[in-house]
Amino acid sequence: MTSLSLPSFEDKICLPEHLRERIAQLPRPLVFTNGVFDILHRGHASYLAQAKSLGASLVVGVNSDVSVKMLGKGDDRPINNEADRLALLAALESVDLVVIFTEKTPVKLIEQIRPDIYVKGGDYEIDTLDETKLVKTWGGKAIAIPFVYQRSTTTLLGRIRS
Ligand SMILES: Nc1ncnc2c1ncn2[C@@H]1O[C@H](COP(=O)(O)OP(=O)(O)OP(=O)(O)O)[C@@H](O)[C@H]1O
Ligand SMILES: O=P(O)(O)O[C@@H]1O[C@H]([C@H](O)CO)[C@@H](O)[C@H](O)[C@@H]1O
């Protein structure tokens, strides 16, 4: 019987204890974004590709299952568990590294990574975010990417349920 090794994209999933060395290996400018990415859709894929194009590498911080519960998206969320959400993001060409965070916001993680560019989608008022204020303390930039495709996990779930 042929034995197959795990697909190489799994290497993009970073354990928090390896974060410092993995970040040091990535080319700069380093772009960072974060989110739940519960049911991946075309809006996410397009957004992440555009985020990557702003720099040389893209790191995605992914909310742990417990931290999703703090965001008020619903008692049944996330639909996909943290391991699966990390793996799907790691499988995208645009993504260089994925790492979990367990707090309500990714501020602690951003302090560790010190990205050159912080990115969120156009559904956020980027200038009001603590994440934006933080990256500016070391001369970083924050950029909001407008939606190209009107998609959302919540809308998809509504359609499945109706
Ligand atoms: N249609 C979209 N186009 C571009 N960016 C998006 C889109 N939807 C979400 N994003 C961005 O992707 C990241 C993750 O978003 P999120 O997981 O909240 O997606 P969502 O589909 O809006 O989910 P939910 O409906 O659960 O809030 C965020 O930074 C958000 O700004
Ligand atoms: O997928 P979402 O809901 O867009 O991701 C959230 O983004 C929040 C944002 O960074 C403002 O603080 C973050 O706090 C939250 O933990 C989710 O990642």
Automatic annotation (TrEMBL):
E.C. number, please?
2.7.7.70
Keyword Manganese carried by entry = no
GO terms for molecular function, please?
ATP binding; nucleotidyltransferase activity; phosphotransferase activity, alcohol group as acceptor
Q: Catalytic activity annotated for this protein?
A: D-glycero-beta-D-manno-heptose 1-phosphate + ATP + H(+) = ADP-D-glycero-beta-D-manno-heptose + diphosphate
InterPro entries for the chain: Archaeal_FAD_synthase, Cyt_trans-like, RfaE_dom_II, Rossmann-like_a/b/a_fold
Q: Has the keyword ATP-binding been applied to this entry?
A: yes
Q: Which UniProt keywords apply?
A: ATP-binding, Carbohydrate metabolism, Nucleotide-binding, Nucleotidyltransferase, Transferase
Q: Pfam families annotated for this entry?
A: CTP_transf_like
- Mention one GO biological process in which this protein takes part, according to its record: carbohydrate metabolic process
Q: Where does the Cytidyltransferase-like domain start and stop, copy by copy?
A: 32-139
Q: Which PANTHER family match?
A: BIFUNCTIONAL PROTEIN HLDE, FAD SYNTHASE
Name of protein: D-glycero-beta-D-manno-heptose 1-phosphate adenylyltransferase
Q: Which organism is it from?
A: Polynucleobacter paneuropaeus
| Taxonomic path | Bacteria, Pseudomonadati, Pseudomonadota, Betaproteobacteria, Burkholderiales
